[in-house]
Write a structure and sequence with these properties.
The structure is a single chain. The protein is mainly beta and about 220 residues long. Helices cover about 5% and strands about 30% of the residues. It contains 3 helices and 14 strands. The protein has helices spanning about 80-85, 115-120, 145; strands at about 5-10, 15-20, 45, 50, 65-70, 75-80, 90-95, 100-110, 130-135, 140, 150-155, 160, 170-175, 185-190. The strands form 3 sheets. Strands 3, 7, 8, 11, 12 and 13 form a 6-stranded mixed sheet that branches. It has a 5-stranded mixed sheet with strand order 6-5-14-9-10. About 35% of the residues are buried.
């Protein structure tokens, strides 16, 4: 009897989960528009986003800043108020964790990565976006991946502010890659012509991280 989007305790102090729409499992749509299955090989559907760990930053919406820099003509640092002045989008997407779970129909609110990249006026047309998070965590994606309309920086999940364990105040959502590419507690976006593999990628995880090819390690 818990409403979709509610945050509920699962018994461990400080541990929570965010429930998806209970009707997700009844969906008749088993394939994406591109013909690929919504649940990639080796994945199993779940009903909530587990707390996958990591070390949170200390930022709140009152002091959070986003630095957009690198090979750009207009480096900029945004406050949370500045961030909210950009076009806001709602996106519903499936997300896939390298550990083997998939959550269908997750709903996020935020700003497209492409909007933020374009605001800084990139000096290159091809390259990579390094997503910088708290405590020195980074990950990277091609600029072509960042240009997809459902690749966003999100601050709401299922209509509610992001819980701390899910990356508050702002996290990346990159649906077409394993979820370690969707960094939590984001603090910077760096545009580069030469890729800079991040925390997990330099520890043996796939840099391309395509769930449908099972590019895990």
């Amino acid at each position: 009897g818990v409403a979709a989007g509610a945050i509920v305790s699962i018994g461990l102090p400080g541990t929570f989960m965010v429930l998806a729409d209970p009707a997700w499992s009844a969906t008749e749509k088993k394939f994406r528009k591109d013909g690929r299955p919504r649940i990639p090989p080796g994945q199993a559907p779940i009903e909530y986003i587990p707390d996958m760990g990591g070390t949170p930053g200390k930022a709140t919406t009152t002091n959070w800043q986003l630095r957009i820099h690198g090979e750009v003509n207009k480096p900029v640092t945004l406050s949370f108020t500045d961030f909210l002045e950009f076009e806001q989008v709602d996106t519903t997407c499936d997300i896939h964790c390298v550990t083997g779970w998939t959550l269908l129909d997750s709903t996020w609110t935020g700003v497209r990565l492409s909007t933020l990249v374009e605001h800084a006026q990139p000096a290159i047309s091809k390259g990579f976006l390094v997503i910088e998070a708290a405590r020195g965590y980074t990950t990277s994606i091609p600029l072509t991946e960042a240009a997809k309309p459902d690749a966003i920086l999100a601050y709401r999940l299922f209509g509610k502010p992001l819980p701390a364990e899910n990356g508050a105040p702002v996290r990346a959502v990159v649906p077409d890659r394993y979820f370690y590419k969707s960094a939590k507690w984001v603090e910077g976006l760096k545009i580069v012509s030469k890729d800079e593999p991040g925390f997990w990628e330099t520890r043996g995880y796939s840099n391309s991280a395509d769930p449908w090819k099972e590019e895990r390690h």
